[in-house]
Amino acid sequence: MSDPRLQTLLDAAPGLRLKTDPADLEHYGRDWTRRWTPAPLAIALPATVEDVQAVVQWANAHRVALVPSGGRTGLSGGAVAANGELVLSLERMNQAIDFNAVDRTLTVQAGMPLEAVHNAAREQGLVYPVDFASRGSCAIGGTIATNAGGIRVIRYGNTREWIAGLKVVTGAGDVLELNRALIKNSSGYDLRHLFIGSEGTLGVVVEATVRLTDPPPPTNVMLLALPSFEVLMQVFAAFRERLQLEAFEFFTDCALQHVLAHGAQKPFDEVHPYYVVTEFAIGDEAKEAAAMAAFEACMEQGWVSDGVISQSDAQAAQLWRLREGITEALARYVPYKNDVSVRISAMPAFLAETQALLGEAYPQFEVVWFGHIGDGNLHINVLKPDGMENADFVTQCEQVTTLLAASLKRHQGSISAEHGIGLVKKGYLESTRSADEIAVMRGIKRVLDPHGLMNPGKLFDT
């Protein structure tokens, strides 16, 4: 332990574990972006809220920057420690604390994996409905820090809607209990919502009380093949009008080919340019008939070229793999990712403009599109050609992201729908937030993190 300050940290928090091996520094110092070289001071692994508080107080005393860390599945550089920061990993704080059957809430430590939260809710006959493909590795605290969305936002909303209360340690080292799971609470500012989506820049979420709900009704999954990009929103409107949608996800044939190469089963004999996987409530003959009516209406209009409906849970999982397997299938290309959103009503015009923009700007790159069209969220993945230097690739991509940010500003959208701002997107924050809004955000940070030590350089420069 070469830095003498670390011994004083262990003295202040005897239950703390520290890691300083080079392999650990690399592992904990980065997220899925892989764009920055990790260089943390050390990795601190607390076991209790008191440990976290002691770490933050020590950091303030020694002016050491902190990077809160969950599952590090982020895609915006929000969990990167590249400048000698102390990584504060909550992976040891991974237990369910309390279930309240009357309130239908579950209180968990922030390092608990999302899938474990799902399982704990299911044991009580209920569900925590926020869900996405990285459920097995992401931590609930990280999903709160980014207000994560996922595949069922169209039905259940973002993480924010399901957080009943939070316990946080602020950047000043104070422990706050926020909202305490109240349904109604009009007693001033709801500080809980400041920490949701704050990307660890205000403090550390250490515990969360999440709301649970009834399991969804029986559902079915349908995969649709579309002949063109332009009919996408008509198909969405036709299905939303007739069905209770749980999800409505879009992807291109380019995305499908990567997933098939990764081991998924081919759904159709013919190749189609665009696809939608949608999940919807069934349970009686009328709902099943409505699903077929929606499909047939789209076929008659020429909006859908082919389709398949799941006949079993196994087949439903196979269809979902075609969408959920995209990120994993693309990982080896280290894609440059854009994660944007607009209002659903603005989506047709934005899609047309963006498609033209990217077709002109990226003729030399393979661009993979997919997204949560039902909630206005589009993912754009640009794949780095083999042999191209990463720095040159990023530079070219960022030039086009500047144009994309301008388009989002015109359509009153957001440069980050669900991945956060982090290091990757902070240069484009002004396309989403006004100067006055950013000034207020900076002021809030100064109050809760007076020395600017919490995840510095993320979201905006202090």
- Using the 3D structure, state the CATH architecture of the largest domain: 2-Layer Sandwich
Span between termini:
30 Å
Percentage of residues in helical conformation: 25-40%
Main sheet record = 7 strands, antiparallel
Q: What do we call the CATH topology of the largest domain?
A: Uridine Diphospho-n-acetylenolpyruvylglucosamine Reductase, domain 3
Tell me the strand order in the biggest sheet: 13-10-12-11-15-16-14
What structural class do the secondary elements suggest? alpha+beta
DSSP strand tally:
16
What's the structural domain tally?
4
**How many helices does DSSP assign?**
15
What is the overall silhouette?
Answer: globular
Strand content: 15-25%
Mean pLDDT across the residues is: 94
Radius of gyration, CA atoms, in whole angstroms: 23 Å
Uncertain parts: none
The CATH class label of the largest domain is Alpha Beta
